Amino acid sequence: MATSVEPLCAHLLKLNGDPLPSLTFKPFDLASSNQRVLGVPHPTDTVTPLALRPSIAGRDDNTDGVDLGTAVEAVKYLQAQEGGVLTKLLARHGTLLFRGLPIHNAEDFSELATHLGINLTRSSELSLTGNRLLPIESPQVPHAPEYIFFYGHRVPVKGGETPISSSLELFYRAQRLNAPSGVWKEIQDGDDEPTRRRKIEAQISRYGRHTYTTWEWTDDGKTLVLTHRLPAIHTQPNTNLHTLFTRLAGYFKYSQGGRKNVTQQLYGDGTPIPEIFLERLAKITDEIRIPHKWRRGDVLVYDNIIAQHGRQPWEAEQADRVVPGKPF
């Protein structure tokens, strides 16, 4: 696939009379197995992820010696344009890959993420194991993160790819299916049942879900059943395109792995969603996903409204830095 190689700053006017930054970002192609042209309703020839690397005038693709401060200034310049250049690219492509930046640790990564101009809520370092299916981040809460950042600090010897797919494309195709319209860490071993229940209920309340989440104790108070009532369809700002903001496909796949009845998927009126619909939804998700093959120092930025992410199994150690952006 051919990606425009015009540096992102090349066409921008000077801001407040300041000169253009010495470093810009140039789109480049990934292997066809790691980059995909998105389908309807995305604009024609829109790829995900959009891969960007630093570029300095007169150096071709040689960016040796580029320091983090220079890269941050370029990011700040782009984001200072009306609407934010990188923010607009995220809204179109769903996922941006930054490769070749001088990022060597979590502190460097956090500095870059901060200057993208997105209000960060928290950051955490993860060492994940197993297979993580394609989810939207936190669809079960009323205020999910709008953006998600990943930084690859240690790359696994084998596996560990991050699948990427479009929630807009998933919703568009799902419409044609003709379907009907770390919580308990404060509990101590010596806590009695009333104390355990009180702590659990307080933890649920702390997330501010209010009327979106209700709970019921069953089996003489030993089992807690949570019910989340949230809209499954969101609208992308500016385009008014609908996106399927759920983990329906992921929960269905988990249920097929011997974890039945852990999570039930219901319509708003409480009736079960037919399994044949969930199965087809999972199939579409597999068809439209593309795996990202990590390199050390890679930074992935997701528009959480329109892009899904996951994780494939891997061998050897892998560590990531994850930063959720402002809630919407």
From TrEMBL:
Keywords: Oxidoreductase. It comes from the Eukaryota. The keyword Oxidoreductase applies. Pfam families: TauD. Residues 72-316 form the TauD/TfdA-like domain. GO terms for molecular function: oxidoreductase activity. This is TauD/TfdA-like domain-containing protein. It comes from Monascus purpureus. The lineage of its organism: Eukaryota, Fungi, Dikarya, Ascomycota, Pezizomycotina.
